Amino acid sequence: MKNKFIIALITFLLVLQAPMMMSADEKKAEKENKFDVPSHVVDISKENTFPNSTEDEEVIEPSELTKELLESTDVSISNPNLIKMLNESTIDPSPIGFGYRGMVFLGRWPLHYQSDDTNINWEYQKINLNELNNIGGNEAQKLSYNQQAQKEVKGALTNKITNPDDVKQMIIMQAKQETKLPLSYSTTIGAATKKENSYNVPPKKYGYLHSYAPAVNEKGKVTFGEVYIQLKGTKKSLVIKNVTKQGIGAWIPIQDHVSFSVEIK
């Protein structure tokens, strides 16, 4: 009787957990699908008459000394410029420096960006309009994309912050890792850029092809702190003081991509 009760209890608990497990799977699938490029968004990197330069963010690998310093503090540090400076620093405490103590102030730095939310606006900024008048026609006609004028699309931080260049770099590195998309704070669509895809405009109708540049919207927090190198005899470590956090957001265009919306009237 006792064994039957235990089996029934376990079965009941599994039934309770099943919706939770499904919910977790659904959330994972939703996160994966959120960054998939939809069918109405096309890659124009080959057709673009303006050659955008690819922005590959430099990945700074910490040296052995820098790794030792980063591991000496509980504060997360991902600012590549700070890591680069630590790599270039030479610290060689004297082996006979018994009792020696010192603190070297490196300045106040943005240390780490923590993303809270990443979304994509596939119609971030309108860049073009193509029209086709088939009011007097008796057959359907084709409406295609043809960029009328060169258009530069810029991203930016959504509010003021100290060391904006460092912050922008940390945000775009995080966003690229999260979305796996070609992101850049500036992208240009050249005049006369065309795409072969076309849309039918029925007879007695007027067709509009609206074109947009998509962009990623990032929201998160930046951790700031005063950075010191502390020397105690032959030992060295990082000390972070006066740690603060500030909310920040950014719009980052998706390079060489165009979103289409067709309107038939």
How would you describe this structure to a colleague?
This protein has two domains: 1-34; 39-264, no CATH class. It is built from four helices and ten strands; from the N terminus they run αβααββββαβββββ. The chain has helices at 2-34, 64-70, 80-88, 164-179; strands at residues 41-43, 101-134, 141-146, 151-154, 156-157, 186-189, 194-201, 205-232, 235-253, 257-264. The strands form three sheets. Strands 1, 2, 5, 8, 9 and 10 form a six-stranded antiparallel sheet that branches. A two-stranded antiparallel sheet has the order 3-7. A hairpin with a 2-residue loop joins strand 8 (205-232) and strand 9. The longest helix is centred in the first third of the chain and has 33 residues, at 2-34. The model is unreliable at 5-22 (pLDDT under 50).
